[in-house]
Amino acid sequence: MPDRWNNPADENNPLRTEERERVRDELEARLTANGVKLTGSETDEQIVALSNAFELFDSARERAGADSMTNTFESTRPDDPRYVIPVRRDDESTEQYIVRMHAAARRLADDGKRG
Prior knowledge:
Elements lengths: L13 H20 L10 H20 L30 H21 L1
């Protein structure tokens, strides 16, 4: 079955390009609003992977019963620091950051299984 999302024929389609840019802008805005630091050099695929990693973490936090409004990156007094999205280090690649977000989500899920 052909890959309809990444059809090379779409590269010259201005409507498809506009749609991709709109989706990327939307994802970047959501990530930034949720405390995910972007460098500006991420590829489209990396933006999608970051978004998926954040959603995984956020779902694990929700299943653990944590309040996403109290446990934000801006919070001076989170309920528990484990419920706050890991902060991206300046020297951290996108892939390294994604791995850390996945690990944080796994820890929350594992803690929920024990509790």
